[in-house]
């Protein structure tokens, strides 16, 4: 169960993580800052809804927590959160179907190779 592994107090290790890999952390934090800026063409509320959908897809509990709170502060509604949930789930399911096509092709290639050998 996820709650047995991730705990809010784990966030207290963030400074240590940054200290241990400063160059990588600086690059990550720069990208995060650019993506989360509030002076872009996409309004903050929509940036947060996008972030929630991605966080749901990547299953990052910390991101879900932070971006849901940010979305509420930016004026998002419960209905918008609910729609973001189902948009994310549909895209996640669609990716499984897309990868299923790849699996079928790889199976066909392997079956053909096996038939040629045997």
How would you characterize the overall build of this protein?
The protein is mainly α and 118 residues long. It has six helices and no strands. It is extended and about 60 Å long. The model has no long low-confidence stretch (mean pLDDT 93).
Descriptive key words:
mainly alpha, 118 residues
Percent helix: over 70%
- Identify low-pLDDT runs: none
- Overall form: extended
* Gap from first CA to last CA: 46 Å
Helices, by number, come to 6
- β content, as a range? under 5%
In angstroms, what is the radius of gyration?
Answer: 20 Å
Number of DSSP E strands: 0
Mean pLDDT: 93
For the biggest sheet, the summary is: none
Structural class: mainly alpha
Order of SSEs: HHHHHH
What topology does this entry show?
Blueprint: H1 2-5, H2 14-20, H3 22-35, H4 44-58, H5 61-73, H6 78-117
Summarize the structure.
With 118 residues, the chain is mainly α.
